[in-house]
Amino acid sequence: MWEYPAIVLLLIVVFLSAAAIRKRKIIQFPEYRFFLWGLFAKVLGGLFFAGIYVFYYTQGDTTSFYECALSFCNLFFHDTSDFFTVYFGNGSQEIKSYFNSDTGEPLMYMFSEGSTRFTMKILVPFLLLSGGSYFIATVLVAIFTYGGLWQLFRMFYSQFPQHARSLAFAILFMPSVLFWGSGIMKDSFTLAATCYLIVAINSLIQRKGQVIMNVLKLLVFGFVVVSIKAYVIVILLPSTLVWMIYNRVRKIRNKLVRKLILPFVYSVIIIGSYVGLTAFGENLGKFSVKNALNTAAINQNDLKQDYYEGNSFDIGDFEPTIGGALSKFPEATLAGLFRPYLWDSRNVVMVLSALENLFVLGFTLYVLFRIKWRKVSSFVVAHPILLYCLVFSILFAFMIGLTSPNYGALVRFRIPLTPLFMACLMVLHGELKTHRLKSEQGLKTKRLVAI
Description:
This protein is an all-alpha fold. The protein has 23 helices and no strands. Helix 9 packs antiparallel against helix 23, helix 18 packs across helix 21 and helix 19 runs parallel beside helix 23.
């Protein structure tokens, strides 16, 4: 029971420190007015996630990660030299034999798999600092991974400060991101690393900060993403190429030259993406260029079986070819963005996800029906980050909708796209409101002049 008073004390220290940071920074950086509330939401999301899996489900991937990482910590105190041998070793049975009955043993199927073993290793420092407490470690993970979302919010704020509140909601306060991206899971670290990667890419494109430092961030956080969930790179790479090249092309003043160069640009993006993804082939596993389509077709067939108890969806059969996959683009993309629907829900967690999806779907339809496409296209042209958000979100939704037709996996896999998709919608909605207000003011002015 010692951990509960310890959590309270930890939270007091953390929030007092965060309040001090906010007070010091807010004078120069107005966006820091959201810093404390964002951190509070992140920690609350992590604790809610932990509570659901401990008291409602009583077990899950998160508790398995905790127990496996705890055996590493026990080995650290049992025999430090053996610990470092295991920590920097591979997932073989020989390395696993260093664990014993005193330390406990990680599950072999998790220890032998590279991405889960890497996640265990990341969790070890958090468990050492927490004294082996699951809930305290969860709080520490939530605090540590908050930095990624916060930096992403600051990046968008620097370009669209007039939409600060909307962007804060889109990036810092989306319930699914807070729930699935704050606990002891792969997704928390993947989300944070992806956010840091996007911010570093933006800094390089905008030529902000030190180039060496941004390149170092790309290498470090790129390594984390590839080591945990390499499939994110499948979408991140082509989307980034679109962003970087389009940012260059839009600066060409001659419209004819821009139109003539676009086919060449598309070819470079396709070829560059293929070469890059092929190079990552071994790390991408089932999401590699070679295996992705077969994986998608197999998953679609498997997840229709009765033993999933209705917790999966069916976009229909397709051939494991590029043409076959593209034939399912609408169904897969819509599923990746908006499912599960309310009628798909089978438990409390899915109901909460479905309610959020209902809001996202409704808000998306509202924005789509209200915007004027000419003004939107010109606005997107002026802000390539929005084009990047749309390309990344749509391609990512298509990929996970095609390859992960299980609701439990889908809602977790979706969280890297959610802040970007919602941020784009919020900016477009904000511009819609601004345009409407200007139009109303213009009409009032004309009426006054007429009078």
